[in-house]
Write a structure and sequence with these properties.
heterodimer, A: mainly beta, 6-stranded mixed sheet, B: mainly beta, 7-stranded mixed sheet, 4-stranded antiparallel sheet, about 0% helix, about 55% strand
Chain lengths: ~110, ~120
């Protein structure tokens, strides 16, 4: 199972929005509504931000939103804040072989 | 309060074995699917293995199939990962996580570092 494709980097100024794409295939992203997104700060464990394409766990700000179209999922962070600077990974259920994305480093300018 | 405490990492020679443990508290592991995920130094996340909540289904990444075994002890509320025939490319921080939905992983620990080196 190949990793899902994400852009290596994305950036935005405080208050702006940034959108990260996550491209897979019909065997993973396109085949199931089980796409999740994780935020990871350096030296820390990942934190679940979005699951089942667009649901937010308790405690995650509504500035974070997710969507999907075909084989591509997206994470949008609105109203960027300094603490949003981190690595972001998508993931998808893929039958018996779950898969993560390649990761995107988000920089707040 | 939900907690996951990984342990058992260390430095091991290629070809040797290691068993990782993940002690859970604040919830019962038999009510959640449990996963192992690893991250090589400076690299991205890689799913390693999972065990479904009923304990009957176990799944593995192709990269570890036949070498790693996931298991659990409900009486100890602990998840395990038995790693055999270790290779240099298995060097990583290993995290355990519970799922709150299909492959939606809730990480509550800091991971344990496994270094495979001669």
């Amino acid at each position: 199972q190949s990793a899902l494709t994400q852009p290596p980097s994305a950036s935005g100024s405080p208050g702006q929005s940034v959108t990260i794409s996550c491209t897979g295939t019909s065997s993973d992203v396109g085949g199931y509504n089980y796409v999740s997104w994780y935020q990871q700060h350096p030296g820390k464990a990942p934190k679940l931000m979005i699951y089942e394409v667009s649901k937010r766990p308790s405690g995650v700000p509504d500035r974070f939103s997710g969507s999907k179209s075909g084989n591509t999922a997206s994470l949008t962070v609105s109203g960027l804040q300094a603490e949003d600077e981190a690595d972001y990974y998508c993931s998808s259920y893929a039958g018996s072989n779950n898969v993560f994305g390649t990761g995107t480093k988000v920089t707040v300018l | 309060q939900v907690q996951l405490v990984e342990s058992g990492g260390g430095v091991v020679q290629p070809g040797r074995s290691l068993r990782l443990s993940c002690a859970a508290s604040g919830f019962t592991i038999s009510t959640h699917g449990m996963h192992w995920v690893r991250q090589a130094p400076g690299k991205g996340l890689e799913w390693v293995a999972d065990i479904w909540s009923d304990g009957n289904k176990k799944e593995y990444a192709e990269s570890v199939k036949g070498r790693f075994t996931i298991s659990r002890d409900i009486s100890k509320n602990t998840l395990y990962l038995q790693m055999n025939s270790l290779r240099a490319e298995d060097t990583a921080v290993y995290y355990c996580a519970r799922d709150i939905a299909m492959f939606a992983l809730d990480y509550r620990g800091q991971g344990t570092l496994v270094t495979v080196s001669s």
